[in-house]
Each structure stands twice: as structure tokens, then as C-alpha cells.
Amino acid sequence: MRTQFSFQDLRFIVEQAHDHGLPITAHAHGLPAVERAVDAGVDCIEHCSCLTDQGFGFSDELADRIAAQNIAISCVIPPPLHLDLSAAPVSIQKLVATTGLTVRRTRELRADMIKRLHARGVPVVVGIDAGLNPLAGSRKFSHRYGAACGGGLVHRGDLGCGNLCDGSRLSSGTPEGSVAAGVRRRPYGC
Prior knowledge:
With 190 residues, the protein is α/β, with parallel strands linked by helices. The chain has one domain (7-177): Alpha-Beta Barrel (TIM Barrel), CATH 3.20.20. The protein is globular, with a radius of gyration of 16 Å. The N and C termini lie far apart (35 Å). Strands 1, 2, 3, 4 and 5 form a 5-stranded mixed sheet that branches. 28% of the residues are buried. The chain has helices spanning 7-19, 31-40, 60-68, 90-99, 103-119, 141-150; strands at 25-30, 44-52, 55-56, 72-76, 124-127.
């Protein structure tokens, strides 16, 4: 749950990006890393897991700070309820053993977090962290997106971020890989 960069280093990185007209995203799982990213003035936080040694540490105060700074959040839809965590990476197995979190409880907490952020007007992008581990392969998007639809986080027929943000923060730099404001695409399986 430690941070990788000091506040001074992270602030320097943010300033350099902004001086060149670029947005900057922090990759943050631990609560201290999320808080540091907010303090440093990033434009987006990937994951924003807010993990502590006891589980999740997301608070209304933190949600208010994120909203006040208009920081976009790229949340990951948790894995399906039937997932066997014995196949998870060792770091995830240790986290589960330490915190007692279950897949079901993680999904509930993430859904609550996304709803609380969305209620404050925070731009939220929902995705699956595809390709980074065996639990998050892109082939699993449809059933995970469907779970988000069923949980009221997104509506069928919208892209994962369709009703949560306007898409203006998403771009691969090419027309083929960009999500444009106001454009809606139908994902597989919904």
C-alpha cells in the first residue's frame, strides 16, 4: 500500500506534463497513492482502488476532493462472482487473506464507490484492465460489462463509459481507437 513516488517527484511530473499541454494519469491502488495523486493535481487516476491493509479506504472526503479537482477516475469492473481466486496472482491472494475481502464484497464496494463518484459529477470510465493478468483478459469484457449493466452502473447499449463520462478524456490519438464525446457504441454481449 506504499507509494512509488514522493509528493515532490509526482508534483514535478504533473507540472511537466501540464507545462507541455498534456494530461497526466496516476496508476494508484493504495489509499496513500490515491491521496498523493489528488494532492499532486493529476487529471485522472487509474484504478483508484483505495486499498489499505484492512480493505478499502474510500471516504466521502476523498470523493469530494476528487470532484472538486475534476479528476477523472478509471475504475476496473471487478471479476465475476464465480471466479476462483486460487488462480489469482500471489499479491491478490495475500490481499484477500489479509483483508478477508471476497469477490462479492469487492464488487459491492467498487459499485458503491463508482456510484458515489458519479453522484458528485466525477467523470468515471469503467473498464476491465484487459491483458494484464489472467483474471482480466479482454475476452471477458462482455460478461463483466453485463454485470455493470445489471448493477446499474452503466446502461445496455452504452460503451463502458458511455453514461458515466462524455468520452472527451479518452483518445488513443487515432480515429480508429478514439472514443469521442457524444459517440456511443454497442459493446459485445450487451
